[in-house]
Design a protein that fits this description.
The protein has 254 residues and is of the alpha/beta class. The protein has eight helices and seven strands; from the N terminus they run ααβααβααββαββαβ. The radius of gyration is 24 Å and the shape is elongated. It starts with a helix and ends with a strand. Bound molecules: zinc ion (2 copies). One zinc ion (ZN) binds next to helix 2.
Amino acid sequence: MKIIIINILQYNYLSKIINSFIYFFSFSLNLFKKIFPLINVFGMCIHCYEIILDNYLCIACWKQLKFLNHNRCGVCNVLVGSNICIGCNLNIKSIFVYNAIISNLILKLKYGKKYYISKFFIQLLGLFYNNKNNNLIIMYIPHYGYKQLKTSINTSLLLAYEFQNQYGGRIIHNILQKQNQLRQRDTKNYKERIDNGFKGYTINPDKKDLLKNKDILLIDDILTTGGTIISCGNLIKGCLPRRLDIFTISKVTA
Ligand SMILES: [Zn+2]
Ligand SMILES: [Zn+2]
């Protein structure tokens, strides 16, 4: 009986120590976050919510991310180094292979309004993109249509905003435009529908000159077939920029 009581006493004593330690730890963690807001985001893994320090993802989640080789074209997978790919005549790069974690993070950003996820993506993009400057023009893929506009965020636009916040440059709106007159219900057959998918963007002729001789970065979240990116990239090229780089966060690989 005596032993049990001592044990309980010891337990209480110990738990008090542990509790005060946890309290002190969380207090100093919060203080640390106030002093260095950018170093520690939330103290949690943005994917699995595990408690961590000084990072966006825990080690287990990091290990599941697969970086793509940045010397290869994001569409054709041909070695190009920092040159333009001969096959698609564009410089398209992606950071990650699209997998369950990336999909989850993009969904959280798109539908859950978890904006800190875009910070994470853009910090990584900044490591690979070497043409950051204040004269840079940042572009995004405009939204598909009115319906999606109501239920989710245009991730491409959000990433563009985040890039502007972190590295400067400026976003120009309403240059790339989704052609509203090419609505899918007006198409006759499947083939036409697919064609319209690729032709569904135009360049606003009033703003065309804003891109001439400029350095341009086009950002999007997921690259699947590359159809959208390539058609938008070619439209931008038609405006005669000095340089055009295209980056997507992830790429769907077979
Ligand atoms: Zn995690
Ligand atoms: Zn290519």
